[in-house]
Amino acid sequence: MWKVIDLEYRKSDGVAIKVTSQYILEKDGVIERKIITLDLDEPSGDITPFEELTEDMVILWIKSKIDYQTIETSVLERLNERVLELENKDIENDLPWI
Fold it and tell me: What is the pLDDT of residues 4-62, one digit of tens each?
């Protein structure tokens, strides 16, 4: 799931200039994520006021600037690898007297 975690903007005109987002997946209690920070292009045409921006709009901006499918695939592959490692783990940590 894509999530915007920070959005930087100019106070003078309300134009968003930098966004930090993450793509995050969870499976069997294991979490894998990729955090990305992007400088946004200067808008052309009509500008949506900062107060009217939605997370979905900003995520569309992000996806238009990056190879998001490769990121999503990479995060999924790393998550599946980590889950498999945990499932096949032969060494455990524990204290038998507790």
Answer: 999 999 999 889 999 999 999 999 999 999 999 999 988 888 888 899 999 999 999 99
Q: How far apart are CA 70 and CA 77, in angstroms?
A: 10
17: left (phi over 0), alpha (psi -120 to 50) or beta: alpha
**Cβ distance 63 to 40 under 8 Å?**
no
Q: How many CB atoms lie within 10 A of CB 48?
A: 13
Q: Where are the domains of the chain?
A: 2-87
The alpha carbon of 37 is separated from its chain's Cα centroid by a whole number of angstroms, namely 9
